[in-house]
Amino acid sequence: MEIATRTGLINSFTSITMLLVFIFLLFLSLASVAQDNITSNESIKDGETLVSARRTFRLGFFSPGNSMNRFLGVWYVNELSAHKEVIWVANREIPLKDRSGFLNFTQQGVLLLLNGNNERIWSSNKTTNVESPVMQLLDSGNLVVKDGKDNNFILWQSFEYPCDTFLPGMMIGWSSQTGVDRYLISWKSADDPGPGQFSFGIDRRGFPQLVVKNGTLKHYRLGSWNGKSFTGTPDLPTNQSFKYEFILNKTHVDYSYEIPKSVLWLTRLIVSQSGFVERFIRADQTNVWTRIYGAPRDLCDNYSVCGAHTICKMVDQSHNCTCLEGFVPKSLTDWSKGCARRSALNCTHDIFQNFTGLKLPDTFLSWYDTSMSLVECKDMCQKNCSCTAYANSNITGEGSGCILWFGDLVDMREFSTGGQDLYIRMPPPLKTGICQYSFHDSQAGYFFHSFSVFFFFLEWGSCMSLNVFQTSCPHSLILFTNKIELLSVFIVGFQIKLRQTQILVRRSLWESYSVPQSLLECLW
Q1: Residue 49 located in a structural domain
Q2: 198 and 264 share a domain?
Q3: Residue 166: enclosing H or E segment and its boundaries?
Q4: What are residue 435's phi and psi, to 5 degrees?
Q5: pLDDT tens per residue, range 80-107
Q6: What is the mean pLDDT of the chain?
Q7: Which domain holds residue 516?
Q8: Which of 39, 117, 165, 258 is least buried, going by the fewest C-beta atoms within 10 A?
Q9: Using CA atoms, how far apart are residues 148 and 292, in angstroms rounded to an integer?
Q10: If you average pLDDT over residues 16-42, what whole number do you get?
Q11: Rg of the chain's alpha carbons, rounded to an integer?
């Protein structure tokens, strides 16, 4: 009886405890999802948050890593971990030193981040006044200020000021209407979200291309958009869940991507503190992020690791630099110096050689026309002696558009799958059988025969001039003949040795530098 009573009391206590825990968790849940927006003259204090409608993102104050500094930012909701995957930071350059900061939303629709002394730390730059401004955290992760009477009228949005994360619906690029050039900048460190040394954006000089920079220097070039992918990233995830869009016209150069609302996972792309571009996905019901893409992938992805007019190829986890056909290395010990042409261009009679499966060269010094055909592209390059190569700008269907390169061809690599066709200007081919500086066995024999006859008569003349023909000339000529016979043995041996050396040098040049056989025949 006593045991049964104790058992009943324990069960009752367990039930009450579970009920209290459930009520506590429900209270926390209701407190955090109470709203996803605030109106003018409201504020958010340190410790308070906004949560998007579908509980995907949270806006609030946080301290990164081991830092004690406080920042206002947006991060993914993750109920099972204290770690925050932050996607946007307002005051990344000026941290708050304590927990006294708060975000104020003014009647004019301006966001003001203030410290405990009411000193401005950060503010938005909204310029248009509306009667009923609303600040809202969207399920896309975008923090927006909009007209409360018109949800489509956006006054300001955080997506216009990205940090280190690229999300679906966000755009990277430039607009002539706003004059804003949007690009990602890495964090300084895991403890400091301030602007780091690596950036990820569109280089608009020449044909636009995606580039990762280390300061002002190019670190990794994803390449230009060819209608299917970027020329330097043929393995970019291209399944139906990712829809990429690249807009190129007179007023916009924008790159964006979308995922269907029906998919049950999240995705983000970041530029890390070490200069890597990485894409992650996370199932909606879990809190685990999986890396599905990262670059640079290998040494050949490093910008211009092999120098100009070279092709980089990975072989057994090591990069191999090779001169383009018709080029020779400037240095056998330093490939970063690139290669130079073996023969000068002719301009009028030059030809174009097709190289396939390549990452197209840096388009920094290029010209483009998206409406031209490949035939028109070749014709334009042929007429301009400064044009060094050409290619289609779009490879969908039969191909369209034109890119012309001027100057050195830099940062090319060979892909085992994917890649693009590039047509490089070459001097006209040499005529068959004509090698201006050849040295063959027949020429050596003719030279030796002429040499022997000339010096035989020279010896004869010497004897005649000394009037000692009867006694010394026969003996002298016999000695001379013996010398000639010994010399002939030496010449024949030299010819054999010369031919052996010729074969070895040709084989070495062919295997190491891919020098064409037609040019090798003209070495001797």
Answers
A1: yes
A2: yes
A3: strand 165-166
A4: -125, 110
A5: 667 789 999 999 999 999 999 999 999 8
A6: 82
A7: 441-520
A8: 117
A9: 39
A10: 59
A11: 37
